[in-house]
Amino acid sequence: MDVTVIGGGIAGLALAHQLAPDHDVTVLEASPGPRGGGYMIDFFGPGFVAAERMGIIDELRARGHVYEGVRYGTPDGAESGRIDVRPLAAALGGRYFSILRPEVELGLLAVLPRSVDLRYGARAVAVRDIGLQGGGSPRGALVELADGTSIASDLVVACDGVRSPVRERVAPGHGEIVPMGYRVASYLYPDPELAGELGERMLMTDTVGRVGWAYAAGDGRVGAMFAERTDVASTERPVPDRERLQRDFAGLHPQVDRTLENAPESFYDDLAAQAIAPRWSRGRVALAGDAAHAPSLLAGQGTSLAIAGAEALARSLRAAGPHVEVGLVEYERRWRPTAERVQRAGRRSASFFAPATRLQLRLQQIARRAVMLPGAGLFAARSVLGH
Ligand SMILES: Cc1cc2nc3c(=O)[nH]c(=O)nc-3n(C[C@H](O)[C@H](O)[C@H](O)COP(=O)(O)OP(=O)(O)OC[C@H]3O[C@@H](n4cnc5c(N)ncnc54)[C@H](O)[C@@H]3O)c2cc1C
């Protein structure tokens, strides 16, 4: 059948990879090329297992890295604690690495079958049902593009991210994101000297209300990330403002201050948010990845879920053959429990992602010591995985 995928990010490319052997797949991506905006993600969990099944894990692993761990730092530059990643990675059977989000996208592009019609600069603006069958269910869907053209297909899958407008159409009343109470900014910039100083450990500030990260991101680049608590009532996307960022996050740690001095004019800046939809398909329009079940970066598994969810959808469609609706129901039945479990874990971690008070900070410091006790690695890994 003809399948149109809206969004050529992680979920969209993973889905296209899996559907291409059986279907004619078109991917519409609004950006003019692969999106460069980068932050480091931890890759483990269901997406890792799915990537193994898809035969793409070596491609992704070759682009990733296993850090020694995290180093905590206070505003005076002192080290206040450490967490080693290797015991966690070992507890996960080695199924863990860190990778820049753009590298996941480039890795998926490198293995994308040639038959996929990937169109950059193609923004979808509307989706409509076409051809009602007996009983009123549609036979396909039409995607209208910003350039005035449209594409009719047997199935449309929206992989257009957490702010997907298609979600409202599939699950009315659930189009809005669900903010988790944090605003997050991140960017990459070249700084070989600081990258050398940061070495094999990510730096995270041990601070109240606002937290900064700095890490060596390969090729002499440094990655910076900033999180602050915000009001959960607002869902509007914030406008990146370099001066505001530099002002509000100054003084967390000398090395983080250096990354602020080098903040670019444009950078990633958004609310950490989930997408909650009680249904993931309606007629011949389905949702996948963050559009369906964004867990927010607090769960640290959005990319993993995006890949695993796309693979689960492709598998269910393959098993259902011509019975597309059956495949869509099966996708949800099999995949929703895992996606919701990770979302719950994300919500649980919201209260301690950036400590709100000195007391919370102190409790976290004590908990960190417990993680470093022998034998605690597996426990910590389990709690990361939400088991
Ligand atoms: C700072 C930060 C840190 C994170 N850390 C982690 C982590 O440690 N581990 C982890 O697993 N995940 C992490 N995540 C989450 C992860 O990045 C996302 O969950 C994941 O990228 C979701 O993939 P997706 O393909 O569903 O959506 P996206 O990656 O958002 O892709 C959606 C795509 O759709 C395109 N698009 C949107 N609208 C349209 C349209 N109308 N027409 C055509 N194309 C359109 C966009 O341009 C984009 O390319 C983090 C996220 C952030 C912001």
Automatic annotation (TrEMBL):
Q: Which domain of life is it from?
A: Bacteria
Citing just one GO molecular function, the answer is: FAD binding
- Tell me the Gene3D superfamilies matching this sequence: FAD/NAD(P)-binding domain
Pfam families on file:
FAD_binding_3
Segments forming domain FAD-binding: 2-343
Q: What is this protein called?
A: 2-polyprenyl-6-methoxyphenol hydroxylase
| Native organism | Brachybacterium paraconglomeratum
